[in-house]
Specification:
Oligomer: single chain
CATH architecture: 3-Layer(aba) Sandwich
Structural class: alpha/beta
CATH class: Alpha Beta
Shape: globular
Radius of gyration: 18 Å
Largest sheet: 6 strands, mixed
Length: 194
């Protein structure tokens, strides 16, 4: 009887973790209350303002379009977040990206890469958790594979020359962690906040 109880508890815990970790049903507002992007990003330079006008959009074109955008953003550091609507850790880190993009969006270009996802589910999630930057659709993982993002979420940091300088393969559950990596890898400034 002890073995059956242990097996039952293990199955229950695994099922609960799977439900929380995968977030497949699209329920819940994982984005929380998002910043006032219009106010926070007013006066952005033209190249970054163009990104803000495409906020929450899913862009086609795959790897070619993504790489073209990275080249077009030369002169600005870029933070590109690889995510999917079904990925629980991706959903949990979105509030950090919402806040960081509002704080740094006048100096840093933010992009999303919606990988291994359906457009319908991605759009539903972005309506729940809006961001002031576009995401490139990557259903076949072409962009993610090129970045070396084998698993979700992942965040790529590019310098002002468009060179990939760091790829983080874990979720940013605290905005302070993301802020520190933006300062260190995208802006190239020392993290003085700890």
């Amino acid at each position: 009887m002890g073995r059956k109880l242990a097996s039952g508890l293990t199955l229950a815990v695994a099922t609960a973790l799977l439900a929380v970790g995968c977030g497949t049903d699209g329920s819940g507002d994982f984005g929380g209350k998002h910043p006032d992007y219009a106010t926070a990003l007013a006066g952005s330079p033209p190249a970054l303002a163009a990104l803000h006008r495409q906020g929450n959009e899913l862009l086609p074109g795959g790897l070619d379009a993504y790489e073209k955008r990275i080249r077009a953003l030369r002169g600005y550091p870029v933070v590109a977040n690889v995510w999917a609507s079904w990925c629980g850790p991706c959903r949990l880190e979105f509030p950090a990206f919402q806040r960081a993009s509002a704080t740094y969006g006048k100096r840093v270009a933010f992009l999303g890469v919606d990988s291994q996802d359906s457009e319908e589910h991605a759009r539903t999630f972005l309506n729940e958790a809006p961001v002031p930057y576009p995401s490139y659709s990557d259903p076949d993982e072409e962009i993610a594979n090129e970045l070396g993002a084998f698993g979700l979420p992942a965040t790529a940091f590019y310098d002002r020359e468009g060179e990939l300088v760091y790829l983080d393969l874990k979720p940013y559950l605290e905005v302070e962690e993301l802020r520190a990596d933006i300062e260190r890898y995208a802006l190239g400034t020392p993290d003085e906040g700890g």
